[in-house]
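Progress note, sequence design subtask.
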């Protein structure tokens, strides 16, 4: 507290002000007093149930809304789908910072999913794991059948409304190549 100009909050939030001169001192004091273990600091993905995207319907999504409101103590359900083939990668959005990915499930069902965060990391992973040619081909919508990109995704389904048309929207929270 001696490094802060003012502070306050509640168990799930904190607000504070400090002078620029105290930023490094504050960072060091936080790290020196941290009691979290390495396991507690390791990010974890919690999946409620594996669910193929082909099983999702608009009616089912409306029933899922019964679980709202989501937040601390009632997290949004997370689903997973494995062994997907990536068919296309599109960079979209006004700021070109959103990915639209097209996948095919093992049974042949094709769907699109949105990734609103981590675009640069995703493209770097794609390049590192599959090389420039595969990455560029996916961005051009021409996947290489001889070197398919296989992925698993953790996602949350939702309903997108655009021009009064309701459709299923899949939002990727995490992935594994």
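Output:
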């Amino acid at each position: 507290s001696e490094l802060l100009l003012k502070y306050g909050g509640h168990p799930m939030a904190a607000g504070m002000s400090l002078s620029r001169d105290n930023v490094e001192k504050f960072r060091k004091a936080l790290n020196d007093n941290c009691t979290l273990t390495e396991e507690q600091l390791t990010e974890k993905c919690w999946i409620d149930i594996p669910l193929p995207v082909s099983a999702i319907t608009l009616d089912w999504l409306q029933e899922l809304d019964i679980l709202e409101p989501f937040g601390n103590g009632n997290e949004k359900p997370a689903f997973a789908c494995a062994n997907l083939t990536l068919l296309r990668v599109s960079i979209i959005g006004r700021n070109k910072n959103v990915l639209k990915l097209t996948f095919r499930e093992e049974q042949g069902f094709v769907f699109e999913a949105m990734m609103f965060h981590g675009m640069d990391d995703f493209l770097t992973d794609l390049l590192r794991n599959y090389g420039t040619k595969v990455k560029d081909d996916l961005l051009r919508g021409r996947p290489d059948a001889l070197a398919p990109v296989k992925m698993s995704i953790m996602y949350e389904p939702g309903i997108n409304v655009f021009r009064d048309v309701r459709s299923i929207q899949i939002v990727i929270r995490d992935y594994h190549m």
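Helices lie at 23-33, 38-41, 58-64, 119-139. Work on this subtask will continue into the next period as scheduled.
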